[in-house]
């Protein structure tokens, strides 16, 4: 991920969740926003550590008419996942993760794709801000379409990262995939 230096940006100090909830008690709209974000969270049960802990459980792809591709994390292979996609096909990325200890603010999906050593795609999508809770979050990205044509077919390598507003990286995963001709003999 490229870092752009900004002389005007100052990181705000990390504050424990309980202290964040107690701030600005007199501001009705802010209090409602915090209640909506945190729900019925029991603050006494929250760890007092300041930094949030985000653990990704699965990462995968939903493809209409085909079986979902799902990888359970952590991966057992050091090479990362490998899979095949049909050209000109629709898909959604799907992530399952937990948040513990503190709010994670501005969780962002960052993906870079290379073909033959050349960067061919760079995507950065803000997923959102998440409160700690026992149940995992599931996030499904907007539908995308694989490229098509002779030049699009072939082998790709990629790197995905999940980072927050403070620059903390919660997952980095390298993977590779092939785009093949969209015929009935292609395997997903």
Automatic annotation (TrEMBL):
Major localization class: cytoplasm
Alphabetized GO MF terms: GTPase activator activity; Rho GDP-dissociation inhibitor activity
Compartments reported by the entry: Cytoplasm
One GO BP: Rho protein signal transduction
Key word Cytoplasm present: yes
Alphabetic keyword roster: Cytoplasm, GTPase activation
Gene Ontology CC terms, in alphabetical order: cytosol; membrane
Superkingdom as given in the UniProt entry: Eukaryota
Magnesium found in the keyword field: no
Similarity remark: Belongs to the Rho GDI family.
Name assigned to this protein: Rho GDP-dissociation inhibitor
Organism, scientific name: Marchantia polymorpha
């Amino acid at each position: 991920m490229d870092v752009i230096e900004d002389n005007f940006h100052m990181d705000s100090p990390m504050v424990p969740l309980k202290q964040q909830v107690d701030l600005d008690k007199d501001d009705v709209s802010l209090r409602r926003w915090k209640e909506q974000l945190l729900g019925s969270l029991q603050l006494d049960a929250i760890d007092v550590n300041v930094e949030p802990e985000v653990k990704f459980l699965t990462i995968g792809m939903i493809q209409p008419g085909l079986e979902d591709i799902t990888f359970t994390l952590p991966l057992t292979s050091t090479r990362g996942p490998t899979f095949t996609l049909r050209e000109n096909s629709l898909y959604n990325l799907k992530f399952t993760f937990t948040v513990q200890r503190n709010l994670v603010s501005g969780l962002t999906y960052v993906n870079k794709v290379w073909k033959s050593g050349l960067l061919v795609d760079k995507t950065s999508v803000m997923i959102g801000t998440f409160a700690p809770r026992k149940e995992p979050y599931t996030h499904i990205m907007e539908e995308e379409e694989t490229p098509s044509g002779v030049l699009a077919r072939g082998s790709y390598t990629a790197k995905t990262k999940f980072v927050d507003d403070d620059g903390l990286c919660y997952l980095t995963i390298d993977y590779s995939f092939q785009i093949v001709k969209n015929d009935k003999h292609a395997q997903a």
